[in-house]
Amino acid sequence: MAHSLCLTTSYELSKFDSAGNYMLKIKMLLRLNLLLIAVLSLLLASCAPPAEKPVELFWPMPPDEPRIKWIGWIRGEIDVITKDSKEKLLDAIVGKNTSGIFLGKPYGVHVAGGRIFVSDTGAGKVAVFDTVKQKAYYIGEEGQGTLRKPIGVSTDKEGNIYVTDSVLARVLVYDKNAKF
Fold it and tell me: What stretch of H or E contains 115?
């Protein structure tokens, strides 16, 4: 009985007799292909260019003395609030929550006590990103303290929040808990 070896289209080595009957299927080439893919992946990963040192941006540019250093951006609460591994897993399974606080047309910025206040003229509110308590919320959404077009925001040493509104033409004062 004569035997011959041939390579099938599924990348497996098969042994056939002279009549063409299937006798033995060996999966050695499949294992070799997987090993080759793993080795190539490791080689390609090691060929990655070295990490670039981040460029530090300052304003104003030289020869003037820099007064402001750019350290990052905030587009919304997703850039301020960190999630634990359970929340990240939930996002991966059911998808990310697209609701929340996002900046539309930021205008004025003030930072105090671990909180970042951003007057958003597009939304007609002041977004507050509390980096200490890991939460974000709006000021000026309801009641007598409703804002129309906030342009400036500041705080005093007691934590009161002062917001200037260009449409209302006045300064609104909120307590440290953002209550009007």
Answer: strand 115-120
Burial of 114 (0-12, 13-18, 19+ CB in 10 A): exposed
Rounded to whole angstroms, the Cα distance separating 29 from 23 reads 17
Contacts of 101-107 with CB under 8 Å at 24 or more apart are 101/76, 101/77, 101/127, 101/129, 101/136, 101/137, 101/138, 102/75, 102/76, 102/77, 102/78, 103/74, 103/75, 103/76, 103/127, 107/150, 107/151, 107/152
Tell me 160's DSSP state.
Answer: -
40 pairs with which residues across the strands? none
Tens-place pLDDT, residues 92-138: 677 766 567 888 899 999 999 999 999 999 999 999 999 888 889 99
Please give the model's pTM, rounded to 2 decimal places: 0.61
111 Cβ neighbours under 8 A, 6+ residues apart? 117
Cα gap 163→154, rounded to integer Å: 7
Phi and psi angles of residue 4, each rounded to the nearest 5 degrees, phi first: -140, 155
Percent helix, strand, coil in the chain, to 5, is 20, 35, 45
* Cα distance between residue 71 and residue 78, in whole Å: 16
